[in-house]
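Design job #97: recover the sequence.
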């Protein structure tokens, strides 16, 4: 039986950050992961370049049943802190758009950096041991210590950090194991669902699938939440950053609205009629939209063949429809395609300062496992770093 100051389940973004933090505070840490390599999601993130943070990080850009929960950890470990680490490791980076920071080179550099930070534990008299290919069979708790069984190996610790992420992309080894553990210890789980995920269209709207490959800058809306970015029609429905963003807010049975003409005035079709009365609606739409999209939307608006023949009322109604076109997704592409999971271990049972369970001293949950989910664009890694850091400082 080996004894550690802390055991961390999951060698992903949050687990490695927690391990490095605890190790550099002189703790002897064991990190256990069933995967054959550490940080697999980091490696595939951001198209292989890892969008490692967002300089626009703010609590309002995270979804959680308790919108205040993330404030403490995010406030104590900021994008500037992570960027300082990246720069200290000589990793070149750039801002792509909307505050999103990426490696110039490869996401491998971020994983190498985190492993290097774990190795620095030795300088403080600590140690970080990473056990890969190690599925966890059982976690037991006798009131003071946690006992982890994995194959022939057993280890014990007074501090257990659960950093096994969420179930998005199961073929990479993602699981909902954190939820099982939370329930085992009497904690609540906010119903998880796939997020940052393409939405699917059916019924009448199947017709839009013929636009597969067409992209346009839009404002997509779910409820009152709006995102201005690109939307993409796919052979199954809708994707692109604007749709991925609203997917996190969308619920089955609800409609989403798309503003296809975000820069046009409310009376732009009337102005187009006065300027060129013989112009077809398709032509007018084509000044704002890709050709195939203009054609499809113009057909559905069913205006007269020339704008001059349409009443101002009809044109005002058409412009209004174009600025909040309703789509009724019949589902999403699910965990197989979801970048993250919304929901997770309820923050009601956790300390926002240490991520420790209020009713089970020594048990911490961090990263995507927790009911805190960021927008697209580096926010989820920032939460993984910040929450991992908060737990690593507490164990
Ligand atoms: P993470 O999933 O990183 O780590 C969990 C670890 O636990 C894994 O190593 C897994 O093998 C292990 N594990 C799971 N179950 C286990 C079990 N039962 N036993 C033992 N080990 C177990 N975010 C962002 O901010 N910028 C970006 O560019 C991207 N890009 C991106 C692309 C793609 C394709 C995906 C799928 C996701 C992203 N994300 C992202 C989201 C980001 O990857 C995610 O939010 C973080 O990796 C979450 O970090 P965690 O450490 O919580 O989980």
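Job complete. Output follows.
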């Amino acid at each position: 039986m080996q004894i550690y100051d802390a055991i961390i389940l999951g060698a992903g973004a949050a687990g490695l950050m927690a391990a490095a933090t605890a190790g550099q505070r002189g703790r002897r840490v064991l990190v256990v992961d069933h995967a054959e390599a550490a940080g697999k999601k980091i490696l595939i993130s951001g198209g292989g370049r890892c969008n490692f943070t967002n300089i626009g990080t703010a609590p309002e850009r995270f979804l959680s049943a308790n919108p205040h929960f993330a404030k403490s950890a995010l406030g104590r470990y900021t994008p500037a802190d992570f960027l300082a680490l990246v720069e200290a490791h000589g990793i070149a980076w750039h801002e792509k758009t909307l505050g999103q920071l990426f490696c110039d080179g490869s996401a491998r550099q971020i994983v190498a950096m985190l492993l290097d930070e774990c190795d620095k534990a030795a300088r403080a008299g600590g140690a970080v041991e990473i056990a890969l290919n190690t599925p966890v069979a059982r976690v037991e708790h006798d009131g003071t210590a946690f006992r982890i069984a994995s194959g022939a190996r057993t280890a014990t610790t007074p501090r257990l950090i659960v950093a096994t992420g969420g179930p998005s992309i199961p073929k990479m080894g993602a699981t909902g194991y954190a939820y099982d553990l939370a329930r085992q210890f009497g904690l609540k789980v906010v119903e998880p669902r796939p997020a940052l995920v393409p939405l699917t269209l059916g019924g009448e709207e199947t017709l839009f699938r013929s636009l597969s490959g067409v992209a346009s800058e839009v404002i997509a809306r779910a409820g009152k939440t709006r995102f201005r970015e690109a939307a993409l029609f796919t052979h199954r429905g809708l994707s692109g950053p604007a749709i991925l963003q609203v997917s996190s807010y969308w619920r089955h049975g609800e409609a989403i609205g798309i503003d296809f003409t975000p820069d046009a005035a409310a009376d732009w079709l009337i102005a187009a009629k006065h300027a060129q009365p013989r112009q077809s609606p398709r032509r007018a739409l084509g000044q704002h939209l890709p050709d195939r999209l203009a054609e499809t939307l113009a057909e559905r608006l069913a205006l007269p063949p020339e704008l001059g023949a349409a009443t101002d009322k009809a044109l005002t109604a058409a412009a209004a429809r174009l600025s909040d076109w309703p789509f009724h997704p019949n589902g999403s592409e699910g965990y197989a395609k979801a970048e993250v999971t919304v929901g997770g271990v309820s923050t009601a049972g956790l300390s926002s300062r240490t991520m420790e369970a209020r009713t089970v001293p020594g048990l911490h949950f961090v990263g995507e496992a927790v009911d805190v989910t960021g927008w697209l664009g580096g926010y989820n890694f920032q939460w993984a770093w910040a929450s991992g850091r908060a737990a690593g400082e507490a164990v």
